[in-house]
Structure formats: structure tokens, C-alpha cells
């Protein structure tokens, strides 16, 4: 861990020196070392979204012998550009901005560094050497909507920032609910960030007070507040883990967990970048058909009925074979 932070410190010091000299970043010396950087929009120890990217980074280090580094970022677009530029100026081969919010900064910086490939999670972009790496969360959230509607009379969704990937997750959830009952009440709140668990908890408690008996988060670490809210209210309130196993946060409430494993996909992509064979024709998209990347596991301690499980499986097959569109207006 110390080595990673030393790399980050070196990058920051190098930037200060360059600014003081008033010069452009010099072209990096020839170096055969494969270098991969990560910009994380929060703690890499969140056991969720950010941990997913960090664990993939560790796999790239282990399996490809890469030199790796990461920076935990605040929500500050100016700092995004600086971080991308720091990595690219040091000859990093690929940098992953782990969230849609990094897209604009990557597009700006990429023009200066054509030899670095910039990947943006939760993005559908293909602009030169900026490539979107997207998982279609509307698909698993559609399944969550189906089971929520079949077991509840009112449901809620607590999102982080109202950006396309979070909005798409909500649309998928809404479509799943409506496929069961078009008139079932759905509450939605976007708290405007991914770190304020207190705000997420307050939003969930508000929905529960208004009658929701199922509330699902999509707010990174802030989503922990939703689990706190349902656990404190009682076992009659259901929820679902997102991007990892959160059963221990609310064992009497969580019906299952939606897992997202970028690992194998990112490692495969990194291999292509390292070998010089990466030739994208568009953004990279993962869905329920990629069973080693996106899947759902149910909580055996809170079993769902055979009827609900059959409906969820039928919906999954419809999504995979294309007969169900989880984003009908997009």
C-alpha cells in the first residue's frame, strides 16, 4: 500500500515542478513497464463500486505485472483533469476514471496524450482514445423491480447523483415494477452525491414513513444509509444489495445482492492494451448475458416464493434474448 501512495505523491510533486517552470509535460522516456492508473470517486475500501475497480487494478498488477497507482478523488472536475494529466504525463498506458463524472475531463486531457487510453466507467462514449466502459444497471434493476412489485404495495429508490448511469438504473427499476403493476407507487430521491449516508438514510426513512415497504439504493457508499434505515425500521422493510454482498448490513431486510465484477473484463481489456491489439469500435458494454460480470444472488435466509423466482428468471431470459427492453425511451 505504501508504494501506491508514493507514486501518487511523486506525481503531485512532478506537477508542481512543471507548473513552476511554466512548461509543458515532457514526453515520457521509453519504458517497457505497463502502467495502469485509477481515479476512484470515493474510498476504495467501500466494499462496493469503488472496491470493484480497485480489486480489478490489483488483478492487473498480479496477472499482467503492471505498475499500478490510484487516487481517491473528491467531486471536483478541475482535479479530475489534473489527475488524468499527471498519469498521462508519466507515461501511463491506460487510466480508468471510475464513473461518468470523469468523462469530460478525460476527453479534454486525451487530446494532449494520444498514447494513453482513457477508460470511463458508466459511460457510453467512444471519442478517440477515450472509451466508455459501461455496465447496463437497468437490466439487474429491472429484475429487482419485478420482485419488489410482486412482494410490496409501495417501493422506493434512493440514488446518488442524477447522472445517466444512476438514472438508467432507476428507469430499469421503474420498468420492472410497471411490468408487474403499472399503478404501484414508486418514490425516488437523488441525494446529489455518493458519500452522504446520512442523507440517504433520511431519504429512505421518508419513503418508509409514506408507506414504502421496499427501498433500494444506488448511491455507492452513501447507500449504506439506506441499509441502516431499513434495519432500524424492522424486518418488514425489504432492500437489495448493490455492487456486492451487503447482507451483513441488514440481514433481516436484504433479499439478495446484485454483483458487478468488472475484474475479468478489465483484465482482458488491459491485456489487449498491453499487447497493442486493443481496437475498439465503440464503447464496451456489459449486461446480464455476461454472467461472469453481472449476476444476482438471493439471500437464502429471506427466501422468495417460487412464483417470484420464476417471474424473475423469465424476465432475465427476456432481457438476454432481447424481447424485454429495460430502457425503452433511450
Any key phrases for this structure?
single chain; 330 residues; alpha/beta; Rossmann fold; 2 domains; 3-stranded parallel sheet
How does this structure look, described?
The protein contains 10 helices and 13 strands. The N and C termini lie far apart (42 Å). Helix 6 (164-180) links the parallel strand 7 (155-159) and strand 8. It has 2 domains: 2-135 and 262-286, 3-Layer(aba) Sandwich (Rossmann fold); 138-260 and 300-321, Response regulator (Rossmann fold). Strands 1, 2, 3, 4, 5, 6 and 12 form a 7-stranded mixed beta sheet that branches. A 3-stranded parallel beta sheet has the order 8-7-9, sandwiched between helices. It is of the alpha/beta class and 330 residues long. Helix 3 packs across helix 4 (103-110), helix 5 (138-151) runs parallel beside helix 6 and helix 5 runs antiparallel to helix 10.
Which helices and strands appear, and what pairs or packs with what?
Elements: H1 2-21, E1 35-40, H2 49-64, E2 67-72, H3 77-89, E3 94-97, H4 103-110, E4 117-121, E5 126-127, E6 130-135, H5 138-151, E7 155-159, H6 164-180, E8 186-190, H7 197-209, E9 214-218, H8 224-233, E10 239-242, E11 254-260, H9 263-275, E12 284-286, E13 294-298, H10 306-321
Parallel strand pairs: 1-2, 1-3, 3-4, 4-6, 6-12, 7-8, 7-9, 10-11
Antiparallel strand pairs: 5-6, 11-13
Helix pairs in contact: 2-9, 3-4, 5-6, 5-10, 7-8
The number of helical runs is: 10
From the helix content, strand content and strand pairing, which structural class follows?
Answer: alpha/beta
The CATH architecture of the largest domain would be 3-Layer(aba) Sandwich
Beta fraction: 15-25%
Q: What series of H and E elements makes up the topology?
A: HEHEHEHEEEHEHEHEHEEHEEH
The major β-sheet equals:
7 strands, mixed
CATH topology call of the largest domain: Rossmann fold
The proportion of residues forming helix, as a percent range, comes to: 40-55%
CA distance, first residue to last residue: 42 Å
Strand tally is 13
Number of domains: 2
The oligomerization state is: single chain
Give the overall pLDDT as a whole number: 90
Say which CATH homologous superfamily of the largest domain is assigned: Response regulator
- Radius of gyration, in Å, reads 21 Å
Amino acid at each position: 500500500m505504501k508504494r501506491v501512495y508514493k507514486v501518487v505523491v511523486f506525481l503531485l510533486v512532478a506537477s508542481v515542478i512543471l507548473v513552476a517552470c511554466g512548461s509543458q509535460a515532457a514526453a515520457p522516456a521509453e519504458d517497457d513497464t505497463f502502467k495502469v492508473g485509477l481515479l476512484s470517486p470515493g474510498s476504495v475500501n467501500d466494499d462496493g463500486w469503488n472496491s470493484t475497480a480497485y480489486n480489478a487494478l490489483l488483478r492487473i498488477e498480479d496477472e499482467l505485472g503492471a505498475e499500478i497507482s490510484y487516487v481517491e478523488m473528491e467531486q471536483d472536475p478541475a482535479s479530475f483533469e489534473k489527475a488524468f494529466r499527471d498519469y498521462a504525463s508519466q507515461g501511463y498506458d491506460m487510466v480508468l476514471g471510475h464513473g461518468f463524472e470523469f468523462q469530460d475531463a478525460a476527453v479534454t486531457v486525451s487530446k494532449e496524450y494520444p498514447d494513453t487510453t482513457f477508460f470511463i466507467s458508466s459511460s457510453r462514449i467512444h471519442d478517440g482514445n477515450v472509451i466508455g466502459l459501461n455496465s447496463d444497471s437497468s437490466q439487474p434493476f429491472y429484475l429487482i423491480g419485478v420482485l419488489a412489485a410482486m412482494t410490496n404495495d409501495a417501493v422506493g429508490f434512493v440514488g446518488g447523483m442524477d447522472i445517466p448511469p444512476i438514472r438508467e438504473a432507476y428507469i430499469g427499476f421503474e420498468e420492472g415494477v410497471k411490468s408487474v403493476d403499472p399503478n404501484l407507487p414508486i418514490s425516488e430521491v437523488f441525494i446529489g452525491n455518493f458519500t452522504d449516508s446520512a442523507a440517504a438514510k433520511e431519504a429512505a426513512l421518508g419513503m418508509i414513513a409514506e408507506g414504502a415497504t421496499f427501498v433500494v439504493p444506488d448511491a455507492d457508499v452513501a447507500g449504506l444509509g439506506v441499509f441502516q434505515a431499513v434495519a432500524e425500521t424492522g424486518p418488514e422493510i425489504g432492500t437489495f444489495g448493490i455492487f456486492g454482498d451487503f447482507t451483513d448490513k441488514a440481514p433481516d431486510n436484504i433479499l439478495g445482492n446484485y454483483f458487478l465484477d468488472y475484474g475479468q473484463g478489465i483484465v482482458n481489456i488491459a491485456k489487449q492494451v498491453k499487447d497493442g491489439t486493443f481496437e475498439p469500435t465503440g464503447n464496451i458494454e456489459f449486461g446480464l448475458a455476461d454472467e461472469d460480470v453481472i449476476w444476482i444472488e438471493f439471500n437464502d435466509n429471506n427466501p422468495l416464493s417460487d412464483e417470484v423466482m420464476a417471474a424473475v428468471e423469465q424476465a432475465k431470459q427476456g432481457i438476454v434474448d432481447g424481447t424485454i427492453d429495460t430502457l425503452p425511451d433511450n
